[in-house]
Amino acid sequence: MPATGYPRPVQKATSTACGLVLGFVLDRVFADPRRWHPVAGFGTAAAALERSTYADDRRAGVVHEVVAVGSVVAFGAAVARGGLLATALATWTVLGGRSLARAGHAMADRLDADDLAGARELLPSLCGRDPSVLDADGLARAALESMAENTSDATVAPLLWGAVAGVPGLLGYRAVNTLDAMVGYRNERYERFGWAAARTDDVANLVPARVTGVLTVGLAPLVGGTPGAAWRAWRRDAGKHPSPNAGVVEASMAGALGVQLGGRTQYRHGAELRPTLGEGPAPRTADLRRAVRMSEAVQVGAVVVAGIVGWVVRRG
């Protein structure tokens, strides 16, 4: 038994739970590093790896996914010996909640100032849509939908993976999500090669997206909505979305805000006609600000859930 008098499982559970909370606080205070971000470094390494692994074939994509994610998970397992400090730093590294909220506020500020050029310049930091074809309402809708999806991807999912798998879970999830953003497209180059990245990301986000949906439903009154409206939108509309996870978080957010999302969506690789989610008017700048408040509330709820889950799972 360690000198502290606490059994090792209790120490491990405490280290995980406290490390997740501390890392969340670091993200709230400092946000993402502006230079030398480890996730950007992983992206550079993954792009270099792609030059060796790429082929217009699903098997090549599987190899790419296994090598890239596997190396990150192995690194996470090695540094996990650092205990609470390692968990806190890894959590800070993979979270993007503070930067997401800042981008949402900045987009709303530019739209309120009728600065469409500035809003279009900012949009790529939120999502991969083509800003050149979007008017003010289109920019508000794109930012709000991205706010909903990235609340899950940038905060809820990494926290939950950290709760159940520690540092390897934190870093491994971020690697999976980053690869999906890089190659998980249905276009000529990545239709087959990116299949493994897209499917792995779908699986990794199945539970986190639904936890995000539950938190959004429960916290809807904080933005002037009702849990009932958020729940109805989720149940009625989420299944219409082509993504099994984005549909949940976007529909519940639409219901909580009382707006309608979806419709024609212009990406750089082409246009898609998305189903409508929720009932009400198209979102405007005020709704985007409410979405930022909801995102921040869900993030706080997620770290509480992750701390509890981390304590229970890592203690057992």
UniProtKB/TrEMBL annotation:
<dbReference type="GO" id="GO:0009236">
    <property type="term" value="P:cobalamin biosynthetic process"/>
</dbReference>
<dbReference type="GO" id="GO:0005886">
    <property type="term" value="C:plasma membrane"/>
</dbReference>
<dbReference type="Pfam" id="PF03186">
    <property type="entry name" value="CobD_Cbib"/>
</dbReference>
<dbReference type="InterPro" id="IPR004485">
    <property type="entry name" value="Cobalamin_biosynth_CobD/CbiB"/>
</dbReference>
<keyword id="KW-1003">Cell membrane</keyword>
<dbReference type="GO" id="GO:0015420">
    <property type="term" value="F:ABC-type vitamin B12 transporter activity"/>
</dbReference>
<comment type="pathway">
    <text>Cofactor biosynthesis; adenosylcobalamin biosynthesis.</text>
</comment>
<protein>
    <recommendedName>
        <fullName>Cobalamin biosynthesis protein CobD</fullName>
    </recommendedName>
</protein>
<comment type="function">
    <text>Converts cobyric acid to cobinamide by the addition of aminopropanol on the F carboxylic group.</text>
</comment>
<keyword id="KW-0472">Membrane</keyword>
<keyword id="KW-1133">Transmembrane helix</keyword>
<comment type="similarity">
    <text>Belongs to the CobD/CbiB family.</text>
</comment>
<keyword id="KW-0812">Transmembrane</keyword>
<keyword id="KW-0169">Cobalamin biosynthesis</keyword>
<dbReference type="GO" id="GO:0048472">
    <property type="term" value="F:threonine-phosphate decarboxylase activity"/>
</dbReference>
